[in-house]
Write a structure and sequence with these properties.
It is found in: Cell membrane. It is a single chain. The chain has helices at 19-49, 56-73, 76-83, 92-125, 130-133, 136-162, 179-183, 191-225, 229-257, 267-288, 291-307; strands at residues 9-12, 89-91, 171-172. The protein has a 3-stranded mixed beta sheet with strand order 2-1-3. The chain is mainly α. It has one domain (9-307): Rhodopsin 7-helix transmembrane proteins (Rhopdopsin 7-helix transmembrane proteins), CATH 1.20.1070. Helix 4 runs antiparallel to helix 6 (136-162), helix 4 packs antiparallel against helix 9 (229-257) and helix 8 packs antiparallel against helix 9 (229-257).
Length: 308
């Protein structure tokens, strides 16, 4: 790689705007990032503090909040720093490291969403066997599997990208290091690598999304058979929250990774959505549409005030 790669750093050009506009964007993204951090930390603390939320559904939700924190923190702090600087650069090794951890956490989140979909399917379609099927051991194994698959996926993606020669130019049309914009900078034929990456990232995101949709087809048919209007409302509310979050995450991922690495103007907006907006909306959606979480947050808040 040392013989074929002459580039030692990359330059981000996605947010190359006038300085005043960059400062405005900095404060907007800083507020979004603070909301993202505080919302997800609040979810994790609430689930940990309230014994009533110690069940598989909220166990997975706490893990989702943790992954969202890690996933966004790989890209957003660097983006905020770049918005305050004139030259937005990152070293070659720093770029590869960012790419590695971004795909590691993103892939883990894909499979965690799939596990959450399966949990809801068992809870609604097989309620009598729920506690037997979704026991603690299975939940731990499912979470461990998400991290393991993320590790394997990220290693494959990073290895494929590092094998490419980069001779120039070094301007990345994005605000972080991802595979599609990096492939466009390689000074060799990348058709085979492009196809392998689409097969890997594209089918991971699409496959997990379809698995969740299939589980919700079964859930929907079961909900329609529930005689109690209150039971239908509660089941529907919980599932809509999960399906909304899943759509916000998988929609942009499928759009970016299920096509060749050609540049489109809308790519910048799409990447901002699934790296910043979607992780910030996750705790909001789950909190606003879930009475149990809202009640628990109020309890934890009151308990904190009383302790003071």
């Amino acid at each position: 790689m040392e013989n074929s790669t002459k580039i030692t750093e990359f330059v981000f050009v996605a947010f190359a705007f006038p300085q005043r506009f960059q400062y405005c964007m900095f404060f907007i993204f800083l507020i979004l990032y603070v909301l993202l951090l505080s919302g997800n930390i609040l979810i994790m603390m609430t689930i940990r503090a309230d014994p009533h939320l110690h069940c598989p559904m909220y166990f997975f939700l706490a893990k989702l909040s943790f992954i969202d924190l890690c996933y966004s923190s790989v890209t957003v702090p660097k983006m905020l720093a770049d918005l305050l600087s004139d030259r937005k650069t990152i070293s070659f090794n720093g770029c590869i490291t960012q790419l590695y951890f971004f795909h590691f956490f993103a892939c883990a989140e894909c499979f965690l969403f799939t596990a959450m979909g399966y949990d809801r399917y068992v809870a609604i379609c097989k309620p009598l066997h729920y506690s037997t099927i979704m026991n603690r051991k299975l939940c731990l194994w499912m979470v461990a599997a998400t991290w393991t698959i993320g590790f394997v996926h990220s290693n494959i993606q990073t290895s494929l990208t590092m094998g490419l020669p980069f001779c120039g130019p070094n301007e990345i049309d994005s605000f972080f290091c991802d595979i599609p914009p990096l492939i466009r900078l390689a000074c060799s034929d990348t058709k085979m690598i492009d196809a392998m990456i689409v097969a890997n990232s594209g089918f991971v995101s699409l496959g997990c999304f379809l698995a969740v949709l299939f589980s919700y087809i079964g859930i929907g048919s079961t909900i329609l058979k529930i005689r109690s209007a209150e039971g239908r409302r509660k089941a529907f509310s919980t599932c809509v929250s999960h399906l909304t979050v899943v759509t916000f995450f998988f929609g942009p991922c499928v759009f970016i990774y299920m096509r060749p690495s050609t540049a489109l103007k809308v790519d910048r907006v799409v990447t901002v959505f699934y790296t910043v907006i979607a992780p910030m909306l996750n705790p909001v959606i789950y909190t606003l549409r879930n009475e149990e979480v809202k009640t628990s947050i109020k309890k934890v808040w009151r308990r904190g005030i009383l302790y003071k």
